[in-house]
Amino acid sequence: MKKKITIAIDGFSSTGKSTIAKLVAKKYNYIYVDTGAMYRAVTYFGMKSKLVSKDVLKSESLILKLKDIKLTFKFNKILGFAEMFLNNVNVEKEIRTLQVSQMVSKVAAISDVRRKLVAEQQLMGVNGGIVMDGRDIGTVVFPDAELKLFMTASSDKRATRRYKELIDKGNTVNFDEVLFNVQERDRLDSTREDSPLMKAHDAIEFDNSDMGIEEQFERICTLVDRKLL
Fold first, then answer.
1. Which residues bind ATP per the record (predicted)?
2. Which of 15, 57, 61, 63 is most buried by a 10 A CB count?
3. Looking at the 3D structure of the chain, how many domains does it have?
């Protein structure tokens, strides 16, 4: 049996963590888990339940509702990756909006939400052979992961990528709004009390401000291959 490792990819928003994680998982036939989608789904649930909005965050009420939230990933053969399902409903499109992006960091800062999702994430990776991306994978979820990466890039570059992604999906947004969202998420993610975004001491930092996907993929695969020796 071939050795299987755990690959933890952390970093700032819109650094392409999910894109590179999907490619790596596909190459090595590993399970891919987008933890950001899980937090987005809880946020979307809160918004639909009138517990989360720009001016409202009913944390205690949302915590009481956590028992009613069932999150699952279902692989889409046509798309080639797993989509997020909230209580058996596909919400992949709904959770990727700027509106959800504007609220997800606040919801992700709620300790009870983090405890629920971290426990689920750890169960997913109990046997290794997994690529997981998020904010606290290498520091909290899998502190013993064999390979830890930390993705970063300038806020302008990240906002440009995010803006293009949203426009391509048919969303009506302006660049300044997207840039503000990127910078605000950085601030909230890095300063929250519970599991703040930070580079693990043994993580390899990747500044991909001027690095294409192909170059990142090749470099990361070289690192994976070394771990598999």
1. 11-19
2. 15
3. 1
